[in-house]
Design goal:
Layout (H helix, E strand, L loop, with lengths): L7 H5 L4 H10 L24 E3 L1 H14 L9 E3 L16 E7 L4 E7 L3 E7 L4 E5 L2 E4 L5 E4 L5 E5 L5 E7 L1 H7 L4 E3 L9 E2 L6 E2 L1 H10 L2 E2 L3 E6 L8 E7 L14 E7 L2 E5 L2 E5 L4 E4 L5 E5 L3 E7 L1 H6 L7
Parallel strand pairs: 7-12
Antiparallel strand pairs: 1-20, 2-3, 3-10, 4-9, 4-11, 5-8, 5-10, 6-7, 6-9, 8-13, 14-15, 15-16, 16-22, 17-20, 17-22, 18-19, 18-21
Bound molecules: fe (ii) ion.
Fe (ii) ion (FE2) binds next to strand 4.
Length: 320
């Protein structure tokens, strides 16, 4: 039953608050002065946990998964980085989900489109892996970032001879919260490309990234940093950061959520006092309002994926 009522006299004559509360409960009304928990607090609660996922673990898991599950069985052969905060079964950060994905030679991952925005960073492609976005086939090489904005058809395939691996980043948790999830399969199964092109608004090549980084000034918090797009997607901001060997960055504390992926090099990231030693392909979650900084052990490039555009658009971006 989705409605309830009580005689007005029963409510108005309630002799005590203890008598009033159960009557209000029958009407699905809560007494604002008697909330079980406060609705606001002095600053962000830091619910999500700092965490570190290793590419080596994902690669080993893919060896098993490649034997055990095909892309015909699975929509995508991916490994979701589930933040270990209590009650969470999917999200990596409050607004973002991150997943490793692998595709084997001669496999395809059928085309679909959805309202959430997505992008991927290529880890190992070895030649022959591609993403088809809106009927344009885009070759994928290590270090490339490929966008599939909200509503764009996209599928993957692999004509090479070695497994290809990349990392997907999506704003699904945010869109789930807001409700407007839409998803559909392409009627043709695999969208056939009308064109093959490395020259697409949906790709940031690693060659262009390296050239941009070489020309970028050094920032205390982010090293040499360039932004991919302005922003790349309405809800997701993308940056590449290059840290010189031995560089220690100044601490960052922001209401935005940050996922760092190691494109090159070794080092460590300290998030809210926890130190994570990383190497290529690893992912580090730095949730909102968790102070964090990096120490590069070698020449290092980090890919920073953040919900800053959301926070900015809503007037909620704040740093401390
Ligand atoms: Fe997708």
């Amino acid at each position: 039953m989705n409605t309830a009522t009580l005689p007005a006299a029963a409510l108005s004559a309630a002799p005590t608050l203890e008598a009033l509360y159960p009557l209000l409960a029958r009407l699905s009304i809560g007494a604002g002065w008697d909330k079980p928990e406060p609705a606001m607090w002095p600053q962000p609660k830091q619910n999500f946990l700092p965490f570190h996922w290793r590419y080596a673990d994902a690669a080993a898991a893919f060896e098993a998964a490649s034997r055990l599950v095909s892309t015909e069985q699975a929509e995508r052969r991916n490994l979701i980085l589930v933040n270990p905060v209590a009650g969470n079964i999917y999200s990596t950060l409050r607004t973002l989900v991150v997943a490793y994905q692998s595709i084997l030679p001669n496999e395809t991952a059928r085309s679909h489109r959805h309202s959430p925005n997505a992008l991927r960073l290529v880890l190992d492609a070895g030649g022959g892996a591609y993403t088809t976005v809106n009927a344009k086939r885009i070759p994928m090489h290590a270090g490339d970032v490929v966008l599939t904005p909200s509503g764009c058809w996209h599928g993957h395939g692999h004509d090479g001879d070695r497994p290809a691996t990349w990392i997907d980043y999506l704003d699904v948790p945010l869109v789930q919260l807001l409700e407007p999830i839409f998803f559909e399969h392409h009627p043709a199964g695999i969208e056939q490309p009308d064109r093959v092109t490395p020259d697409s608004p949906f790709i940031f090549s690693f060659a262009a990234t390296e050239a941009g980084l070489a020309a970028a000034p050094v920032d205390a918090q982010y090293g040499r940093q360039i932004e991919l797009g302005k922003p790349a997607l309405k809800t997701v901001g993308l940056h590449m950061m290059q840290l010189a060997p031995g560089m220690q960055t100044a601490p960052v504390r922001t209401t935005a959520n940050n996922a760092y992926t190691v494109v090159r090099g070794e080092g460590r990231t300290i998030v809210d006092g926890e130190s994570f030693e990383w190497r290529r392909g690893d992912v580090i979650a730095a949730p909102a309002w968790r102070p964090h900084h990096h120490v590069a052990g070698s020449d290092a490039i980090l890919f920073r994926v953040t919900d800053t555009p959301v926070m900015e658009a809503l007037g909620l971006l704040r740093s401390a």
